[in-house]
Specification:
Layout (H helix, E strand, L loop, with lengths): L33 H5 L7 E7 L2 E7 L1 H5 L3 H5 L2 H4 L6 H13 L6 H6 L2 H4 L4 H19 L9 H11 L6 E4 L2 E4 L6 H11 L11 H18 L4 H10 L1 H5 L4 H15 L6 H9 L2
Antiparallel strand pairs: 1-2, 3-4
Helix pairs in contact: 8-11, 9-14, 11-12, 12-14
Length: 279
Amino acid sequence: MKKLLAAAASVAMLAMPTEIDPLEIVPNSYPPTAYQTIVGDADKPLGVTLTVNWVKVSFSTTQRGIKHDGIFWRNAHFDDWDVVPNGLSEKGLQKMLEKYGNFIQNKDIWEKMSYNEWDIVPQPVRSMAFMKMLDYWSGIHESCRTEDGSDTLKAIVMGESWFEHRAINQQKGNIDIGLPGASNYARKAINRIYKRDIRDEDYFNPYIATEAAALWFGRMLQEARCDRNLAVRAYYKGIRRARDGDGTEYLENINRIRNEYIRNMGNSQAWQFLHTRTQ
């Protein structure tokens, strides 16, 4: 599985399928009305950012907009929430948990939802749910006992797609698809080795894609004889090239993501807030 997403810096290479265009749901921002200037802080303009097709877009909302489901919730990633003033951000995220928290740990819901239905769940909540899915599948398909459990698998998926279930990265005839960044080779190999019939579009379904990620990383662990670092490099470069030393930079980035996000040692206040409350 290829193409590293170094934090969010390289995510601009990814695109979403043509049938979904978030730009259609992001309206033009207009100057505040006279009414908004006198009704109080709840409706005063507040400058934030949104993430639309992996591009940061300046947007004007209000405190009320932060606390209620709407344009900001639908298009804000974790780093967009980090722009929101402390206190207000936590209130908004708490409201989001109250409305969408049942998606995070409910396996019965995961099995029934289509990828189109996951589109309407805000990205921060989706990320928490996808990590729980990876815990679930890792427990079922565990091929080696590692000290960090599923933490490395979560970091790999975050590095590949930033927990965007519709992620696509196309380059030089290869297409990496979905949460695990499944390459052409990996998709064919998973179907062949595990007797599956997973279609390309199925990789946009988080429940299917997270199982595929667990299967493939489990395969890499087997080939690496449970050497975690070698398996991570093999996920990116294949076992032969990994044994030749390739994939070191990828491993370093996965370790950074694991520490900064999965183990909650970083600086994202929004991530820390939700991660703490969903563990």
